Amino acid sequence: MTAITLDCADPEALAAFYRQATGLELHPKSDGDFAGLTSEDGLFIGFQRVDDYRAPRWPGQIVPQQVHLDFAVDDLDEAEALLLELGATKPEHQPGGDRWRIITDPAGHPFCLTRG
Questions:
Q1: 116: helix, coil or strand?
Q2: CA distances, 47 to each of 8, 27, 78, 103, 106 (Å)
Q3: pTM of the entire structure?
Q4: How far is residue 15 from each of residues 43, 79, 97, measured CA to CA in Å?
Q5: For the segment 10-25, what is each residue's pLDDT rounded down to a tens digit?
Q6: At a CB cut-off of 8 Å and minimum separation 6, what does 28 contact?
Q7: 85 SS3 class
Q8: Distance CA 91, CA 103 (A)
């Protein structure tokens, strides 16, 4: 796999969130319609503007999650605190117990933090 693209209302804002969360570099051609992050190994994460974007509602399926990413971290509490500070939210429904945490990005996409 070389790329993952997420729909959203504000590509630049969502790219900024994931840039701070992951340390990936902002693609130089990013703009208000499509922004992207790149890693040294070639992985590209894109964020595309969608008119009338509707955020997923975890865990319900009225507006399904659309995509699900997992991030391995050394410390769940530390990673969660950082992401919440960056604008993420932590849904009440947490089925992973001590094994993982579900977080939603500022556009509503759920993703998991797992022990690295």
A1: coil
A2: 7, 11, 26, 18, 12
A3: 0.86
A4: 14, 18, 29
A5: 999 999 999 999 999 9
A6: none
A7: helix
A8: 6
E-only strand ranges, the chain = 3-8, 25-26, 34-38, 44-49, 69-73, 100-104, 110-115
Amino acid at 87: G
- What's the CA gap between 38 and 5, in Å, rounded? 12
Helix, strand, coil percent values for the chain (each to nearest 5):
20, 30, 50
If one counts every other C-beta atom within 10 angstroms of the C-beta of residue 19, the result is 17
The pairs formed by 58-62 with CB atoms below 8 angstroms and a separation of 24 or more are: 58/91, 58/93, 58/102, 58/104, 58/108, 58/110, 59/91, 59/93, 59/95
Of residues 23 and 67, more confidence is placed in 23
Structure tokens at 66: 């659309």
